[in-house]
Amino acid sequence: MMDADALLPGVKAAAREAGRLILSLYDSGHYQSEHKDDDSPVTSADLAAHEYLDKALRALADIPVLSEEGGDISLAERQRWPRYWLVDPLDGTQEFIAGSGDFSTMIALVEQGQPVLGMVYAPVHDLMYYAVRGHGAFKVTAGGETVQIHARHHDAVPLTRLRVAISRRQDVQWVRSRLHTSLDCQLLPLGSSSLKSCLVAEGGADCYIRIGPTGEWDTGATQCIVEEAGGRLLDLSLEQLSYNRRESLINPNFITLGDAGLPWQQMLVQPE
Predict the structure, then answer these.
(1) What is the pTM of this model?
(2) pLDDT at 66 over 80
């Protein structure tokens, strides 16, 4: 196995530099935007960060890079990779375009189908979250302080109040329909998917439910961070997400849980 901990300083530097490139275009407003074949937006900031990270990460470790902006690689080829970089250069492109500031760069190192290093950097807020498998999860604040983070655990069961992170563009009624009516739910709207999962990882929310298409690059980094913080990232049947196992790189709908010890099956309304 690769020494992920030894790679961490280089990954931090790469994430910050990608964030600097994105922020320069965000602040100036001098970027181009178009729609991909799936109708999702992409900007010149996405592409600039992708090009930089593709070179920087290969220089750190000479292994393949699977990026949202270069993900058209067959399963037959990907299955030959024992390890690879999994990257979303700009998670939250819609938030970037809208000017909310809630976007990030995501980098994961995946080995044998599991993320063993996760990095999320939000340049507008100058916030960094990272984890290496077996070494805990951490947050670097805008002031430069590094603190270990832990998901929120509950002593009292059954749970009656739930803090739920949701997308600003999420169907609120759909989220409520997934939770039993006995729960008092406080909904916390945010932008980037990664930042909502990191909010769960640091105990600011109990869960984040995601409905709608995401790619494996949207969850690889945060899965490592959330699990090292004591939480879980699962599909809505409460099975662990998998990586590099299918031809499609699209994730199922998923939920990020802070307290894996709670009876979530009883709190979620299961799909029919």
Answers:
(1) 0.93
(2) yes
